[in-house]
Each structure stands twice: as C-alpha cells, then as structure tokens.
Amino acid sequence: MISVTHFAAGGEQSGDFAERARTALGVLAQRPGFLRGSLGRSTDGPGEWVLITEWENVGSYRRALGAYEVKLHAAPLLGEALDLPSSFEPLLEIAPGGAAITRASDREPAGDD
C-alpha cells in the first residue's frame, strides 16, 4: 500500500515543516509493516510537499495510525494535509532494467471462472 500525502506548507508553518515531517516519518518508520518513506518538496512551488510511505498492506498502515507515538508525533502533521486521495494500491512496478511486476487490484471482484 502506498500513501501519498500532499501539503501546502506556506507562511508561518513552512520554517519548521521539514523537521516536523522528519519526526513524523521517523515515528511511522518504527511501526510494523512500514517498508519505506520519503519527503519531497515541489520544484515548482517551494511550499508544496509530499510525504510518501509504503506499507506491507492496508492493515499495517491503519494500525500504525492508531499507535500512541504516531498519534502524538505524526497525526498533527497529517491533519494539515490537503484534502486529496492519499492511499493507493500498487498495481505495477518496474525495476531498473525493465522487469515488471503486476498485481491484481483488491478493489476488483475475483473472477468465478
């Protein structure tokens, strides 16, 4: 499961946004099921950021959000996110060299063939 959370961190909050995001990402990284995460800033708008995390599955992500440390250190930051879809299921991955891995969607009903 991939979470892509968008932020518009302009004005007063922009100065400490990167540090608060680093703290949030560090806390999330300690949760079971966390695979990797990154923080990125837009090259077109310096106040636009994304926090991207990857998880083993939706359950591990949801359990992580319920953990005390996450509620304390990450939830306040996540509460500032833009109201956009943020959770995605990976359906295609291509590694360097072109090897492709495809997955069926959890949202599509299983065939009764």
Automatic annotation (TrEMBL):
<dbReference type="Pfam" id="PF03992">
    <property type="entry name" value="ABM"/>
</dbReference>
<keyword id="KW-0560">Oxidoreductase</keyword>
<protein>
    <submittedName>
        <fullName>Antibiotic biosynthesis monooxygenase</fullName>
    </submittedName>
</protein>
<keyword id="KW-0503">Monooxygenase</keyword>
<dbReference type="InterPro" id="IPR007138">
    <property type="entry name" value="ABM_dom"/>
</dbReference>
<dbReference type="InterPro" id="IPR011008">
    <property type="entry name" value="Dimeric_a/b-barrel"/>
</dbReference>
<dbReference type="GO" id="GO:0004497">
    <property type="term" value="F:monooxygenase activity"/>
</dbReference>
<feature type="domain" description="ABM">
    <location>
        <begin position="4"/>
        <end position="67"/>
    </location>
</feature>
